[in-house]
Write a structure and sequence with these properties.
single chain, Transferase, Pyrimidine Nucleoside Phosphorylase, Chain A, domain 3, four-stranded mixed beta sheet, 41% helix, binds uracil
Length: 444
């Protein structure tokens, strides 16, 4: 037996990290592989309680860039990698570019963005998720369109990318399966908000997905995963670094999530607002972020001169949206479902709105039935919150601040309890935070 074979056992891996040491590449490969594939013939597997202890040690001690890169690679290697390098349209190779948002309240940007970018002849393979807790999921939103389905096979995905250009669908179970198990464990062990764990979780899926370029929308503020700008910046820099070293041209925008995006939070309500954007209208903040991300994606795809605002104004993005929805069984002309019950939350004083807290609005929409508390729960397509006042707007006593929508009116009281304190009204105009706070590129 060679002298340099490393003998690894789970307890010593945990203890290394607990004591502030660095894990070796072999330790990382071993622990991810044995946790994901517990084949009885392949030696000891890593139990949930052991992985929980290791995750907490990583949460408290952090990981170096080298460890984070290896952890990411081990999660990629736990499953299959997709390959879009053969995509063709009219005999020409199609470039692929994807966007990932770290999640926020009212964040419906993928809906107008994917068809908008695809309308320029760039392929957008958008593997998306479902919502958990106060942040919504893109698939839940699209599933409010009658007939639309999220499960698309790899062959259907490739055919749709070549024909339509955009596909938004669920990631297959064989894409970074280690992340799937680890994410579920992190969710119940208080270990989600760790920069190396979030960065490796997101980037393992994006690199395995096989996109050529990636634009990240890293949220910061009360409605985001990471509340401080410093943490969000570190997350953005880590993910850009991970993407570039894996050969994916990656850049990030750091964007404000202290206020909800647009005027809706909730599945069908957000689809309706996205349709306004695709029709050339919509709330200014949603339009601004859609165009900024589209510019980054088109630039990353080698189309720096493309003008996304023009394709929102002239209907080209809407045409691609319709094709994208039809291709996945949806009816783009069917009326969206609407809630049987609505109630208003009104202003209790005159003045200027100085704050609309994103987290409170997200929790309000969730309590109305728009989100789920546990994976697998069903969501109400119709439920959510419509915002009538955004920061800087004047209100008088009795004016509506929110309209709550639900199928189950017994939910109103719990949602009202959080929404009643979501808005602050004052005398002066609020200090305005720019929506797009910074841009992170490799080496920046
Ligand atoms: N989204 C992910 O996919 N993973 C995380 O860890 C956090 C957000």
């Amino acid at each position: 037996m060679s002298e340099d074979v490393e003998i690894i056992d789970t307890v010593s891996v945990i203890a290394t990290k607990r004591d502030g040491g660095e894990l070796t590449d072999a330790q990382i490969d071993w622990v991810i592989d044995r946790y994901t594939h517990s084949d009885p013939g392949a030696g000891p597997s890593v139990a949930d309680e052991q992985m929980s202890a290791l995750l907490m040690a990583i949460f408290l001690r952090g990981m170096s860039r080298r460890e984070t890169a290896r952890w990411t690679q081990a999660m990629i290697d736990s499953g299959r990698r997709m390959d879009f390098s053969g995509l063709r349209r009219s005999g020409r190779r199609l470039v692929t570019v994807d966007k990932h948002s770290t999640g926020g309240v009212g964040d419906k940007i993928t809906l107008p963005l994917a068809p908008l970018v695809a309308s320029f002849g760039v392929a957008v393979p958008q593997l998306s998720g479902r919502g958990l807790g106060h942040t919504g999921g893109t698939l839940d939103k699209l599933e409010s369109i009658p007939g639309w389905r999220a499960d698309v096979s790899a062959a259907e995905m490739i055919a749709q990318l070549e024909r339509v250009g955009a596909v938004v669908c669920a990631a297959g179970g064989d894409l970074a399966p280690a992340d799937r198990r680890l994410y579920a464990l992190r969710d119940v062990t208080g270990t989600v908000e760790s920069i190396p764990l979030v960065a490796s979780s997101i980037m393992s899926k994006k690199i395995a997905e096989g996109t050529g370029a990636l634009v990240l929308d890293v949220k910061t503020g009360s409605g985001a995963f990471l509340k401080s700008e410093q943490d969000s910046r570190e997350l953005a820099e880590t993910m850009v670094w991970l993407g570039e070293r894996a050969g994916v041209a990656t850049r990030a925008l750091i964007t404000d999530m202290s206020t909800p995006l647009g005027r809706t939070a909730g599945n069908a309500l957000e689809v309706a607002e996205s349709l306004e954007v695709l029709a050339g209208g919509g709330p200014p903040d949603v339009v601004e972020l859609t165009i900024a991300l589209a510019r980054e994606m088109l630039d990353a795809a080698g189309r720096p001169d493309a003008d996304p605002a023009r394709h929102l104004a002239n209907g080209a993005a809407m045409d691609t949206w319709r094709e994208m929805i039809l291709a996945q069984g949806g009816d783009p002309d069917a009326p969206l479902p609407t809630a049987r019950h609505t109630e208003e939350v009104t202003a209790s004083q005159d003045g200027v709105v100085t704050r609309v807290d994103a987290l409170s609005v997200g929790v309000g929409a969730w309590r109305l039935g728009a989100g789920r508390a546990l994976p697998g729960e069903t969501v109400q397509a119709e439920a959510g919150v419509v915002l009538h006042a955004k920061p800087g707007e004047r209100v008088r006593v009795g004016d509506p601040l929110f309209t709550m929508h639900t199928q189950t009116p017994e939910r109103f009281a719990a949602a009202r309890a959080v929404l009643a304190s979501a808005v602050t009204v004052g005398e002066d105009s609020p200090r305005t935070t720019p929506l797009i706070i910074d841009r992170v590129t490799v080496g920046a």
